[in-house]
Each structure stands twice: as C-alpha cells, then as structure tokens.
Specification:
This protein has three helices and five strands; from the N terminus they run ααββαβββ. By secondary structure, the chain is α+β, with helices and mostly antiparallel strands. It has one domain (4-116): Nuclear Transport Factor 2, Chain: A. The strands form two sheets. A three-stranded antiparallel sheet has the order 3-4-5, with helices on one face. A two-stranded antiparallel ribbon has the order 1-2. The protein starts with a helix and ends in a 5-residue tail after the last strand.
Length: 121
C-alpha cells in the first residue's frame, strides 16, 4: 500500500529536477531516469534513452536555457499500482532564448512522468 511517503518521494523527483535545471546540471536532470527512459520535448524531440536526453540537455543547458529558471506550480499523482504512478505537472520556464538568441517570453507547460518504485524506496 502506498502512503504519504510515496507521494513525498515522487514530489522530491520533481523538486530535484527543477533544482538541476536551475543549476543547468544536465547529469542531475537525468539522475532519476532509468537507462531506457524516454522523453518527448515540447519541440517534439523524442529521446529514446536517458543518454540521448542527457546529450540534448547538455547542449540546451549550455546555450538556450543557460539563464533560464524552471518552477513547478502543480503536481498531480495517480497510482496505477502499489509501485507505479503517473505524475502530471504544470511548470513554467522563464529566461531562455530561442535558437537565434532572441529572449523568449515566459511560458507554461504540462509534463507527464511514469514513475516506478524501486528497491523499496
């Protein structure tokens, strides 16, 4: 049976991701991903492994997103089983630039994560 500690652990994943983003630390952004994790960006880039995602974020965090800040305003968690949950987040990004270097307006997005409890943690 899941308890409040499970929701807390899931929320820590989101907080840690934001912290890594705000420090522009691509390796830390990947820390909670399994090697076969998949990620589809808002631009439609489909990364089929955590290594692909890492390489993309290393490039983006060193350039377009190097001055950006990411914040999460909402986290919804739905447990599908005792070990698997769907997590939907509403987030904002401000301070980034488009590929030509022009500042972008702050914007909001919605992200979806599938998380699996591993090793009893």
């Amino acid at each position: 049976m899941q308890g409040p500690w499970d929701e807390t652990a899931i929320r820590v994943i989101e907080e840690s991701y934001n912290d890594a983003w705000n420090h522009h630390d691509a390796a830390a952004m990947v820390a909670s991903m399994t090697p076969d994790a998949q990620f589809i960006s808002v631009a439609g880039v489909w990364n089929r492994s955590s290594e692909e995602f890492l390489q993309l974020q290393r490039m983006l965090q060193a350039d377009q997103f190097k001055d950006s800040v990411r914040e999460t305003s909402q986290v919804e968690i739905r447990f599908l089983s005792l070990e698997i949950a769907i997590v939907i987040t509403r987030f904002s990004v401000a301070g980034d630039r488009d590929p030509s270097g022009t500042p972008r307006s702050p914007r909001q997005g919605i992200g979806t994560r599938v998380v699996q409890k591993q090793s009893g943690i």
